[in-house]
Design goal:
The complex is a heterodimer of chains A (287) and B (787). By secondary structure, chain A is an alpha+beta fold. Helix content of chain A is 15%, strand content 36%. Chain A folds into two domains: 2-36; 54-286, no CATH class. Classes of the chains: A alpha+beta (287), B mainly beta (787).
């Protein structure tokens, strides 16, 4: 188009026109080259065969069966009939132990994972970390969050932010909310909600308004029979299973009729929960 | 480099192909009162058909002038005609720089002349330099400087709300652009999210002209990287006879139900002048082409005083003070609205000109720009859980001194400038969900400051058909901030980044050179190359976790950033013919070192502080990036009643290497991969604007139709998951009617067909994936009264 325009110029001398031809040609070539983005051979992104991946899924059972939520059909070790409405919890600092003493902590992208029985997306954790291939003896993790990382307001978006632990009770976040209802002794119909919550406990000078200190109740879970072999390029499926009934039985028999529906200010109860948690989880590793 | 050699060879061949038996006369025409170049001055050899007119930079050249003495007249409506005698020698250029004086009596006629909408005067500068004048601004229904620039040729902008659009030039944006006021004053906006870019602190009604120089070439006005935008406010003149000049403006725009007024009163005589002016504007929400109401309302007012004193002949002392206030400026794409903006702009200038045979002029300037910016999330959905209020004070103080001297056939300008930016701000969060909790205070910056001291040299010269320019500047940039910390009211410090005092020092050397070769009096070719370096800005260095990008991430500053460099080459062809029109074609290639952008940080390392964001990005030097593209401008000659203009521009940007974080269906990061030659984010697509107009009543009534066609943008960043944008075409109608020397009416219809569309650079409505659509159809009318 520009060429035609210039050719119509009445005052254009012939020698100028030939110069114009060359300049326009050069200009066109420059523009085309600039648009082509031909800056040499593009490097090829070779797939990484020196690492492997893991995918962790979470399932929740009672008496080895998937939970029938919102149904009053379970009885705990203390004999309380109960139902489960929802379970929300954090696990963090998942660590893979190798037989040569090497410990691989999962924290390249995130170190705290939130699980919610109402949110299926949270029940699968596609781990970002590129794991070194090899034979791993066991898996361990922190149930909850260690105090150094349990920082108030660090989660700004739901659902994690809704796990906040009130500041006056120590701040940070709940490790777990296991919400349900139980049928108190002597009742046949009227259930009472229980908030089986675990988080930072308090030391009271005089209950409930004089707190002298806080106690962190997170605990380590070492999963039994969690060894596996990881090949280069492989994605290993690891299923972590929470056996809900175990929260109430070993080593302490937890009785809802004794502790009531609300335990966030009851360190004795939360300590029982913590100590019962040691064998709540098992693992299933898929080949 | 190969292309440069080829071009140099071509130019050499061209230069050898022309023998001359005559001489040339050339020079620059300057307004004696303002010191600004005057374009469109008719230059004529008395008793001869040889003539031309000055370009946008005031330059003119007469070629094929027979040897001997000639009388030359310089005339321009609005200026007193002058005549000069020149001796022309064979094969030589006779340099003739002219100072002309405004003719106050004829100023109104000058306004009539200037209403022609199709001028495209082509500068001899070897790069793309564009000027926009007051009469052009008055033709539009624009609400701020960025809004106007975006509606003009080959410049884009980022819209976040109804006003205060952030300019983008060839994909360069933010601190990659050097925005100055009156040739040197800097303004640091308060908002880290650039609600208030520098251009938003100058009311468009006060603007006399806007100069845009694309590329790293305008080193005289501070570190220049991608482009320089100078906002020149209106400045009156002294006059032999005492005068009073009153100007009023009343404007209305439908759709927004917006109106604005301005009044300016000037009194002056030969000793000086004083101007008092003020304005206000009040706009409501607009409806987009879908009929959806966009939360875009705002109101502003400003007042200004200017005192000019001429203590001696050719000396001028100019004192300026302005306050502008913005209130309730809505930004539906941002987590907050601007509740209050209080800006004070102060400057003192001392200008001396015609000092002698060697010294041409001296300009001295000191200034201070204070911005107090307050924003909150009062109208955001999440204000029911957290009420956040941010208050930021940004103070920019500085000065500059320069002297121009004649060296041979050219001019050398030497000078220095300094600039100090201080910025402090905090965000108060009131946690509604925990009512007994004290207000949480987060620092946005922590007593951060940047000092930049620079020295520059600029030489312009010419010989025969060559015009060249070379410039260099050195900048000493020093920044410091106290440690970036976040304190919790009960837990104490919960975030700490960096040492107790973070300091960085950089020395940056920028330089550029270019030449224009006039093949004949109609056609020229220019080549320019330059390296412009900018130090990281306050936000890139020190921002503490705020969502300031186009994406939904909190950004974290990085005090260890290296300066970013733009190595650019521009090739420009210019054609100018009184019968065929004006044509300019430019191609540019930019190679950027240490390109500054953001990259994601693992949440294990840093979690965001803002609600509704996806994570944290930290600024880093991403290596090499490239920008290339072209611009095309054509304007028909003014002499015809029927006229047309056509502008087109395209930019293609890539980043050599970037990391893409692979997401699963839930948006969680599950892997990463390297992406080569990924698209740079926020690059405008190919676009063109066509205008056709007709001059009735000798140009006093000019109706025009505009069509803007914008291609879809599918070259988007893969690593950043940047969405593509569909193309669109939008039409508008405008008119300009100069009733007489006292009354002018302009008006029109924007978006005639009520198209629903959005620009690629528009941000998304906060908390959604919905795009911020442009306004639907609106009618506007502007009335100007002068007496």
């Amino acid at each position: 188009m520009f060429r035609n325009l210039l050719n119509t110029l009445p005052y254009q001398e012939q020698c100028h026109t030939s110069v114009l031809d060359r300049l326009i040609l050069f200009m066109s070539v420059m523009i085309i080259l600039s648009l082509s983005g031909c800056d040499g051979e593009e490097p090829i992104d070779e797939p990484d065969n020196q690492s492997a991946k893991i995918r962790i899924s979470f399932s929740h059972l009672i008496d080895d069966q998937p939970i029938d939520f919102d149904t009053l059909k379970y009885v705990n070790e203390a004999g309380n009939p109960y139902m489960v409405n929802e379970i929300q919890y954090f696990i963090s600092d998942v660590t893979l132990f190798r037989n040569d003493g090497f410990a691989r902590i999962i924290d390249d992208w995130k170190d705290i994972h939130y699980v919610d029985t109402d949110l299926p997306a949270t029940q699968t954790w596609e781990v970002y970390d590129k794991i070194e291939p090899g034979t791993y003896d066991s898996i361990a993790f922190t149930f909850g969050i260690v105090p150094e990382k349990n920082i108030s307001f660090m989660f700004v978006n739901p659902p994690e932010k809704d796990m906040f632990w009130p500041e006056y009770l120590g701040g940070g976040y709940h490790y777990m909310k296991l919400n349900g209802k139980w049928l108190p002794e002597g009742q046949t119909v009227q259930t009472i909600p229980f908030d089986f919550h675990l988080g930072r406990g308090q030391v009271y000078f005089s209950y409930p308004d004089s707190i002298t200190g806080f106690i962190d109740n997170q605990f380590n879970v070492s999963l039994p029979a969690s060894g596996f072999h990881l090949n280069s390029g492989e994605t290993k499926e690891i299923e972590m299973i929470m056996h809900v009934e175990k929260w109430f039985k070993d080593p302490h028999v937890y009785d809802h009729d004794v502790f009531g529906g609300y335990i966030m200010q009851n360190q004795e109860a939360m300590l029982m929960v913590k100590e019962n948690g040691h064998n709540v989880f098992t693992v299933k590793i898929k080949d | 480099m190969k292309r440069v050699l080829i071009l140099s060879f071509l130019i050499f061949i061209i230069s050898q192909s022309h023998g001359q038996s005559t001489g040339e006369i050339g020079g620059q025409i300057i307004n004696d009162h303002s010191g600004l170049p005057v374009e469109n001055v008719t230059v004529q050899i008395v008793g001869s058909a040889i003539g031309t007119s000055s370009d946008t930079a005031g330059y003119f050249i007469l070629t094929n002038v027979p040897e001997g003495r000639h009388r030359i007249t310089f005339s321009h409506i609005g200026f007193l005609q002058i005549e000069k005698t020149v001796e022309v020698q064979s094969d030589k250029l006779s340099r003739l720089d002219i100072f002309i004086n405004p003719d106050v009596k004829l100023l109104h006629e000058f306004v009539v002349k200037e209403t022609s909408p199709d001028r495209l005067i082509i500068s001899k500068m070897p790069y793309v330099e564009t000027d926009f004048y007051k009469f052009q601004l008055q033709n539009e229904a624009v609400r701020d400087v960025g809004d106007y620039l975006r509606s003009s040729k080959n410049i884009n902008g980022i819209r976040k709300g109804g006003t205060q659009i952030d300019p983008v030039v060839r994909g360069f944006k933010f601190s990659q652009l050097n925005v100055t006021l009156n040739g040197g004053q800097k303004i640091e906006g308060g908002c880290p999210n650039r609600m208030d870019p520098a251009s938003a602190h100058v009311e468009i009604e006060d603007i006399e002209s806007i100069k845009v120089i694309k590329g790293p070439y305008a080193l005289r006005y501070g570190p220049s990287f991608g482009a320089m935008i100078n906002l020149q406010t209106e400045q009156k003149e002294t006059a032999e006879k005492p005068y009073v000049d009153v100007r009023m403006m009343q404007a209305f725009e439908s759709n927004w139900n917006g109106d604005k007024q301005q009044i300016s009163v000037t009194g002056g005589n030969k000793l000086g002048f004083i101007t008092l002016s003020g304005g206000r504007k009040n706009y409501g929400n607009y409806k987009d082409g879908n009929g959806q109401e966009v939360q875009s309302s705002f109101s502003k007012y400003n007042y200004k005083g200017m005192l000019g004193v001429k203590p001696f002949k050719n000396h001028l002392l100019l004192l300026t003070y302005e306050e502008s206030k913005g209130r309730d400026i809505r930004f539906p794409t941002l987590p907050m609205d601007e509740r209050k903006d209080d800006t004070q702009l102060m400057s003192a200038d001392y200008q001396v000109k015609h000092m002698g045979d060697l010294l041409n002029f001296i300009n001295l300037k000191v200034y201070q720009s204070d911005v107090r910016h307050e924003m909150d999330n009062k109208y955001r959905p999440f204000s029911d859980t957290v009420v956040a209020v941010s208050i930021i004070n940004a103070v920019t103080a500085g000065g500059r001194a320069e002297a121009g001297m004649k060296i041979g056939a050219g001019e050398l300008i030497l000078g220095g400038d300094l600039e100090r930016i201080e910025k402090d701000g905090r965000r108060d969060k009131n946690m509604i969900m925990q009512p007994n909790l004290p207000v949480k205070v987060e620092k946005l910056w922590n007593n951060a400051h940047i000092n930049n001291t620079g020295a520059f040299a600029l030489y312009t010269g010419n010989r025969r058909k060559w015009e060249w320019i070379a410039s260099a500047r050195i900048d000493f940039n020093q920044a410091s901030s106290e440690a970036i910390t976040i304190k919790h009211p009960m837990l104490g410090e919960i975030y700490h980044y960096g040492e107790d005092s973070i300091k960085t020092d950089y020395t940056n050397l920028s330089f550029s050179a270019g030449a224009t070769y006039a093949i004949n009096d109609k056609f020229s070719v220019s080549l320019a190359a330059g390296r412009g370096i900018r130090s990281p800005d306050m936000t890139e260095r020190f921002i503490i976790l705020l969502p300031i990008g186009y994406d939904k991430f909190d950004y974290l500053g990085n005090p260890q950033l290296e300066p970013e460099a733009n190595n650019e080459i521009d090739l420009t062809l210019k054609f100018r013919d009184g019968k065929k029109g004006y044509l300019q074609i430019n191609g540019f290639y930019s190679f950027l070192d240490n390109y500054i952008t953001g990259r994601r940080l693992p949440p294990a390392l840093q979690k965001p502080l803002s609600a509704d964001v996806l994570g944290v990005k930290q600024f880093y030097n991403a290596g090499n990036a490239r920008l290339r593209g072209f611009e095309f401008s054509y304007s028909s000659p003014e002499k015809y009643k029927l006229g047309a203009t056509l502008f087109a521009a395209f930019t293609y940007g890539t980043l050599d290497e970037s990391v893409k974080y692979v997401l699963n269906e839930q948006g969680e990061v599950v892997d990463d991969e390297i992406v080569y030659d990924d698209a740079l984010t926020e690059i405008p697509p190919l676009e063109s604007t066509f205008n056709i107009h007709y001059r009735f009543l000798k140009g006093r009534f000019v109706p025009a139709m505009n069509v803007r066609m914008v291609a879809s943008q599918n070259h988007v960043s893969e690593a950043s998951y940047e969405p593509s944008t569909p193309g669109f075409a939008v039409a508008g109608f405008s008119f300009n009617f100069v009733f007489n020397s006292h009354f002018t009416i302009t008006g029109g219809i924007n978006n005639i067909f009520d198209q629903a569309y959005y620009e690629h650079l528009n941000r998304n409505i906060i908390g959604s994936t919905r795009n911020l659509y442009e306004p639907g159809r609106s009618f506007y009318i502007n009335l100007f009264i002068n007496f």
